[in-house]
Write a structure and sequence with these properties.
The complex is a heterodimer of chains A (336) and B (441). By secondary structure, chain A is mainly alpha-helical. Chain A contains 14 helices and 2 strands; from the N terminus they run αααααββααααααααα. Chain A folds into 2 domains: 121 residues, no CATH class; 155 residues, no CATH class. Chain B has a 6-stranded mixed β-sheet. In chain B, strands 2-8-7-4 form a 4-stranded antiparallel β-sheet, with no helix packed on it. The chains are: A mainly alpha (336), B alpha/beta (441). Bound molecules: iron/sulfur cluster (2 copies).
């Protein structure tokens, strides 16, 4: 031991083994079951979309950081990879490849790097990309391939509507829920993932397996997903009880329209959600309520993407007002 | 259910590799370097000169004020120098250098006195002796003990807490002391209860020291207002405020002291030192130090004379291995990394930890991903990521509003941050500037 090799950094001198990369890769692992289901349901289209999104996100991050911002590139930290996966999972299978590339550019360039990179972004980058596409290309973004039947063809898949889309249409045409329910998939199919919808929102089962894994690994806490889904169930439940012939039951709402994908994987994004548990609950209630409002009264049948983005904007405010309780600030003099 | 504090805390690997090693006596050091500021407060004033012969236990520096403490010669010998040397905290401090007299028998007298249970001193005399005999908090804070015992008239005290938590990983000095000097510690507790005129004491011990818990339980069965409380293992439970919260569910107010909630806390090591002072007339001249590290040949616990160079301790465990990167005075969470091994052991040195290359490495700091882990683990309910940010930007007033001054520097936030952010480094800095700002007001 010579004196040069001694370091005198300050305490603490030990650190936990957890790193942000490990957290990110845990999310990737959690999304694997969902990806497998999407391959089964949408076949090669899901594969193409997912890989296009991943590669574009990584590439745009690299190019922008290297040539535009001239900073260190961070493509190995796992965050652009997750943005790619989540963006793809929020798109319909069979969407033109160039649109995915555009969506990735918006997600990484505007959603993340324009704010200063990972940690400084206010909005969930994947959702920024998705919503941009939804607003710019509403037609292509709502062409939902029918599951399984055409999972080996590349183009011109037969398309159908999503569960919530069917309900919305039906309601607009004056059908009652009991009439509509013959046209929509059974709740069991919804749970297993055999319905129309975005690539990654299909199987509640696969999403829950990954979500429970993430909670078990302490990557996310239960507060956000459970509160989002519970709020949605309660609010839709109230409407449904008031008029079951006009409103879909809470189970349909929770199992469809990307609610579980959003609640477990999009709303829980560490950077764009509140830091305290109290804050998380408030944030999640907001998402739940806004989602239901959009679904029932707005023009988009799914709604959770918008709800998350809206609540993302409130996170700085939530962090300011829902602070942890300081030790010693509530004095209970309990001396006997 | 084991008791613990409710908010925050972490559980790093305990690594108590020396917990089964009885305390050995370190050979008499040839030279001791005794700093005159080993306690919080005003440094003591030197009352010896070069070439003076000193006896063991003789006062060599006198308390410099109310919050200060006497310093006694740990050896019999000759003062060779009054010099400035770097202390464990990295500051140059005035030191009294004494060469031990190897022929003087008192240097080899061990402190194995027969247990003396009967307390013969009066309350006043006890307090006086604690203040004169250089007793300071041995848990690491080194706050002069007599100040803690000077209870203001308007405060109602009802409980003495004895801190046997030793929540720092690696350290086992208090653990061994409890096992080997349990009866003496109980007498020390009785002395303090008598001096403070209170009839309740709790010894708080974390559940990874079951043998110590059992020992105290068997020694106190049915007796005298002394309770033994087993605590869940959680860092930083040894922090006064966390310990009081864990044991009594009382929360010390933000800018307050344990006294404000009727409690006085003393570390087990301090209690033993008080026993020695009152019952055997021994001022504070030595302490238990754990010398440890995963790669050491023979990590051990030692009785060490104050002023012994750290080098001597490392030699006693077989030297430091090749790949050593850090030598820390104290534990891995709150200890100070040493620049060199010439620094002496002081009253506050609870351990010397040798950290190797692979354990010392720490990832590059990355952007904060606002994961909130630091917020979750902060035992003081602070937002470390925010405090670091404010310190970095120089917004100290705002940081004070966000309670940066209440940070206990436990390091839990830096420990957990998955982005390896040096949170505590910045918070410490912001805190020191914040303190200056406050005192200028
Ligand atoms: S633990 Fe680190 S990354 Fe997480 S919020 Fe705190 S500072 Fe940021
Ligand atoms: S902010 Fe201070 S009290 Fe809180 S965890 Fe960090 S070091 Fe400990």
């Amino acid at each position: 031991m010579s004196d040069q090799t001694i370091i005198v950094s300050s305490s603490p001198h030990v650190h936990s083994e957890r790193t942000s990369e490990k957290l990110m890769y845990d999310v990737v692992i959690a999304l694997l079951p969902v990806f497998l289901v999407s391959l089964y349901v949408f076949g090669i289209n899901a594969l193409i979309a997912t890989f296009t999104a991943i590669i574009s996100c990584l590439l745009f991050e690299y190019l922008i950081q290297k040539f535009l911002l001239k900073t260190k590139t961070t493509i190995t930290d796992g965050s652009a990879l997750i943005t790619g996966i989540l963006l793809a999972f929020n798109l319909p299978a069979g969407i033109p490849v160039w649109m995915i590339v555009v969506g990735s550019l918006v997600a990484i360039g505007i959603g993340k790097l324009s704010f200063g990179g990972l940690g400084f972004n206010i909005f969930n980058p994947a959702l920024v990309g998705r919503v941009f596409l939804l607003v710019s290309f509403p037609v292509q973004m709502t062409l939902w391939p029918v599951p399984i039947e055409n999972n080996t063809t590349l183009v011109d898949a037969v398309t159908g509507a999503t569960t919530l889309g069917l309900i919305k249409e039906g309601v607009q045409f004056g059908q009652s829920m009991s009439e509509i329910s013959t046209q929509i998939p059974s709740t069991a199919d919804m749970f297993m993932g055999l319905t129309s919808g975005s690539i990654g929102e299909m199987s509640a089962l696969a999403l829950l397996i990954g979500g429970i894994f993430l909670i078990g690994r302490k990557v996310i806490s239960w507060h956000i997903p459970v509160t989002v889904l519970a709020t949605m169930a309660v609010v839709t439940g109230v409407f449904w009880m008031a008029d079951p012939e006009y409103y879909a039951n809470p189970l349909i709402h929770v199992l469809s329209g990307g609610a579980i994908l959003g609640a477990f994987y999009m709303a829980t994004d560490l950077v764009t959600s509140p830091v305290t548990k109290k804050g998380m609950v408030i944030f999640a209630i907001g998402i739940g309520v806004i989602t239901v409002v959009i679904r029932l009264f707005g023009s988009y049948p799914e709604g959770i993407s918008f709800a998350i983005l809206i609540m993302n904007a409130f996170v700085p405010l939530i962090n300011r007002y829902f602070k942890p309780r300081r030790f010693g600030s509530r004095i209970k003099a309990k001396i006997v | 259910m084991l008791k613990t504090f409710p908010k925050g805390g972490i559980h790093p690997s305990e690594n108590k590799i020396t917990s089964a090693k009885p305390i050995k006596r370190l050979p008499l050091p040839k030279v001791v370097y005794v700093p005159i500021s080993q306690h919080i407060g005003i440094p003591a004033e030197i009352v010896v000169d070069r070439k003076d012969k000193v006896e063991i236990g003789q006062v060599i520096a006198k308390s410099g004020g109310y919050v200060s403490s006497n310093i006694h010669s740990p050896v019999a010998g000759t003062v060779t120098k009054l010099d400035k040397i770097v202390d464990t905290r990295g500051y140059k401090k005035q030191c009294i250098v004494i060469r031990s007299d190897v022929k003087n028998e008192s240097n080899f007298q061990e402190n194995e006195y027969p247990l003396k249970e009967e307390i013969s001193l009066q309350q006043e005399e006890i307090l006086k002796r604690i203040s004169e005999y250089g007793i300071v908090g041995l848990g690491g804070a080194t706050f002069p003990s007599h100040v803690k015992l000077q209870v203001k008239k308007d405060k109602l005290l009802d409980c003495l807490i004895v801190n046997g938590v030793e929540c720092e990983p690696f350290l086992t000095a208090d653990h061994r002391l409890m096992l080997e000097k349990g009866k003496e510690i109980l007498v020390g507790i009785r002395i303090l209860m008598y001096a403070l005129q209170i009839d309740r004491a709790i010894i708080g011990i974390e559940n990874n020291k079951k043998d110590a818990i059992d020992l105290f339980r068997s020694l106190t069965s049915g007796a005298s207002g002394i309770q033994i409380a087993a605590l869940q293992v959680k860092y930083p439970q040894g922090g006064e405020k966390q310990l009081i919260r864990a044991l009594l569910k009382r929360e010390v107010p933000k800018n307050g002291l344990p006294m404000d909630v009727g409690v006085v806390v003393h570390n087990v090591g301090t209690v033993f030192a008080i026993y020695q002072a009152i019952q055997h007339n021994r001022p504070l001249m030595e302490r238990v130090v754990t010398v440890t590290g995963k790669k050491l040949n023979d990590p051990s616990n030692f009785w060490v004379k104050i002023g012994t160079p750290v080098k001597d301790l490392l030699d006693a465990v077989g030297g430091v291995p090749e790949d050593t990167r850090k030598i820390v005075s104290g534990g891995p969470m709150m200890g100070k990394a040493l620049k060199n091994t010439d620094v002496p052991v002081t009253k506050g040195t609870s351990g010397i930890l040798v950290i190797s290359e692979d354990e010392a490495s720490r990832g590059e700091p990355k952007n904060c991903i606002r994961c909130g882990e630091c917020v979750d683990v902060c035992p003081m309910g602070l937002e470390p990521h925010l405090l670091m940010n404010l310190s970095e930007k120089g917004m100290y007033e705002k940081a004070i509003e966000e309670d940066i001054l209440t940070c206990i520097e436990c390091g839990s936030c830096s420990y957990v941050c998955p982005s390896h952010r040096p949170l505590l480094d910045y918070i410490r800095f912001g805190k020191s500037i914040g303190k200056q700002l406050e005192s200028n007001k």
